[in-house]
């Protein structure tokens, strides 16, 4: 055994603290502390002294602190795959919320066609009721839809998908299918491309201010071929839209007016 009565006292204290692990380990731990000189000298030499209150034992028991070697520094637990996925998801939702707040502040209440701007977890949904195709064109740009974005009809609405600040934006535009149909019938030579109606009978102006004309020629895939003013090289409508689109209609040629005047003169 040992002559150091602190072992018994330490065992009692340890037994109390480690009761859930089993009492048989308490004395072994106290003995190990003494063997390694981690306990102070014997505190009590008589039976009366050994009967001191437990609070006094706790106050006088000395355990020396030993810091772990510098080489045994604990490393941070790396994030699991699930934790990383949760962090990524929360970051996406936070970005979507910021875009939703920005769109709401900038446009809601200022554009009469807006029905709702909703934050839907990691995306934003914009619902409008277009009064004209100008509203549709505006929101295609505001939603970040590329000029070659495929749009599709569902019921009485036209859908488009864009991206704003890295956040997906879904555009639901009510009445646009009807407006597109009206524009198709109103055009002299209509052509539908990527959610827009182009009247090929009119000059088409690109974003750089260049004017393009259609002279009746088409590529093998039936895409209309346009020519820039003062040039002879044809270019597919789709390529022009991708490079400098979307295109806006210019003033239609005054062919009918000139013909009418000439006709009136001939009749005279």
From TrEMBL:
Region feature Disordered, mapped onto this chain: 247-268
Listed name of the protein: Uncharacterized protein
